[in-house]
Each structure stands twice: as C-alpha cells, then as structure tokens.
Amino acid sequence: PGTFDPVTNGHHDLIRRALSIFDEVLVAIAANPNKAPMFSLDERVDMATRVLSDLEGVRVIGYEGLTVEFARRHDVPVMLRGLRAVSDFEFEFQLATMSRQLAPDVETVFLTPSAALSFISSSMVREIGVLGGDVSQFVHPLVAEQLRVRAASRQRSTTVIGGA
C-alpha cells in the first residue's frame, strides 16, 4: 500500500522482487486525505497500471479508508512495505504495530530496494519534475511525461504581479 504519487522505479523494483516471493501482488493506492497529492487517485491508478503492465501477477486498485480494512476486504494476508533508509524504519514500525493492533490477521513484511534505487522517493521526484528537472532515470517514461505536462500546466497558471 502507498500513495504512489507518482510510481517510481524504486516501486517497480520492489513489486518485481515481491513477485519472486508471492504469486500475486496487489498494489493498493491510497486516496490519503492527509496528503495533497499532485495526481488524482484515478491518475495514480492509471499510471501505476500502465507502468507495471510488464509484470505478470500484479493488480492495481485505488482505495479510501484504512489500509488494514482494504487488506481484509481483498483477503490480503500480507502487506509489503518498502524501507529506503534507516530513517523510514521508525515510522514504518509504528505503522506496522498499529496495523497489527487493528488487524492481527494481517502481517506486515518489509523489503529494501536495490542499492541503486534506495535514494528515490516520490516526493523528491515530484519536486524535481515540477521544477523542470530531468526525472527520466527515476521513473518510467510515461511518468516522466506526466510530470512534464503537470509542470508545464502549473507554469502557465502562475501569474507574476508587479513590474520593474
């Protein structure tokens, strides 16, 4: 589960490797009202579906509400969470512990990304993309294009007031 705003090469790597452990991987994309995503839930689900289409055994579904309730509704016994750095562990540990209290029948498993992808985060990719930087090494070409289009539309909607 995650926000996937947007889906990155790091996500793709974790999902690909999860398929070597599990027969099927359900990518659960959260609406997450506590965040202000750049892309709508439908856009994020569409991008992830297209980016992950090369992986057999992957389904992408958007959802609202508690992740553990989503897991129960879809008979998901294991939630996979990615840990990029030690700094991620404390938050993810708290999340896993709370999830266990709410749904003892749903386990949380942590995977770390490949070393070459461990620094990639959606928030950094968004920032680079919005500022017109090249994100092609961090995301699928489809995502890079969507970020470019979104950045261009934001620049067009920005008005400068005043003068010299």
Quick take:
The protein has 164 residues and is α/β, with parallel strands linked by helices. The protein has helices at 9-18, 41-51, 67-73, 86-102, 122-130, 141-157; strands at residues 25-30, 58-63, 78-82, 107-111.
What does this protein structure show overall?
The chain is α/β, with parallel strands linked by helices and 164 residues long. Helices cover 43% and strands 13% of the residues. The protein has 6 helices and 4 strands, in the order αβαβαβαβαα. The protein has a two-stranded parallel ribbon with strand order 1-2. Strands 3-4 form a two-stranded parallel ribbon. The longest helix has 17 residues, at 86-102.
- What gap, in angstroms, lies between the N and C termini? 50 Å
What's the total helix number?
6
Q: Determine the mean pLDDT.
A: 91
Low-confidence segments: none
Q: Main β-sheet: number of strands, strand sense, barrel status?
A: 2 strands, parallel
Helix vs. strand class: alpha/beta
What is the chain-wise order of helices and strands? HEHEHEHEHH
Share of helix among residues? 40-55%
| Percent of sequence in beta strands | 5-15%
Any idea what the shape is? globular
Strand order of the largest sheet: 1-2
Radius of gyration: 17 Å
The count of DSSP E runs of length 2 or more, i.e. the number of strands, is 4
Structural key phrases:
164 residues, alpha/beta, two-stranded parallel ribbon, two-stranded parallel sheet, 43% helix, 13% strand
Layout of helices and strands:
Layout: H1 9-18, E1 25-30, H2 41-51, E2 58-63, H3 67-73, E3 78-82, H4 86-102, E4 107-111, H5 122-130, H6 141-157
